[in-house]
Specification:
Serine Threonine Protein Phosphatase 5, Tetratricopeptide repeat, 2 domains, 9 helices, 0% strand
């Protein structure tokens, strides 16, 4: 009887110690990201609604620095024209979840706005590596190659898009209406290269 009791106590103690170790490791790794989250800038040009949006996203990311929360904070910074803070948040989100393509996509789009050609290529290549069917990333990467005068790579990427078979599929609740499928824009870019 005493042997069983002792075995139960030892097993319970080991399980508890393991739980404490797991908790400490998760806390320390999360704390590493918490300390890198950029602070909200003191800007008088931000409206009350934007400040509130940034504050809520900042609090959520500080509380639980998951890739999604860090990325959403980056999106809030991005939409309020705080590009340096947005880039930092996107980088943290990418570090937190390297398999998700969405944060590379947003960082690539931010790089387009900032005119950083190397970052555009790097991020959209990463998106395509993670999700080869992401035609919009192919399009933006093709545009950047065209701007860099690397016409062969641009032609290959635009050609991949024009060969897409499911171009007429429209989502059930689209957030953006476009009059032409992406392949039409890709064909236009191809014609500009050929011209």
């Amino acid at each position: 009887m005493k042997g069983k009791r002792k075995a139960v106590i030892v097993i319970t103690g080991r399980v508890f110690a393991l739980m404490v170790i797991v908790f400490l490791v998760r806390f320390i790794s999360s704390n590493q990201y918490r300390s890198q989250i950029p602070d909200i800038p003191d800007s008088y040009s931000l409206s009350v609604a934007v400040k509130e949006q940034l504050s809520q996203a900042f609090t959520k990311a500080k509380r639980v620095p998951s890739a999604d929360n860090l990325g959403m904070l980056g999106m809030a910074y991005h939409s309020s024209a705080n590009y340096e803070q947005a880039a930092e948040c996107y980088h943290l989100a990418i570090q937190r979840d390297e398999s998700a393509w969405i944060w590379n996509y947003y960082l690539g789009y931010l790089s387009i706005e900032m005119g950083n050609a190397d970052a555009i290529v790097e991020n959209f290549k990463s998106v395509i590596d993670k999700d080869p069917d992401m035609d919009l990333a192919c399009y933006y990467l093709g545009e950047e190659y065209k701007n860099l005068r690397d016409y062969e790579l641009a032609e290959m990427l635009f050609g991949k898009i024009t060969g897409t078979k499911n171009e007429n599929l429209v989502p059930k609740n689209p957030t953006r209406y476009d009059y032409f499928p992406l392949s039409t824009y890709a064909m236009f870019q191809l014609s500009r290269i050929y011209f």
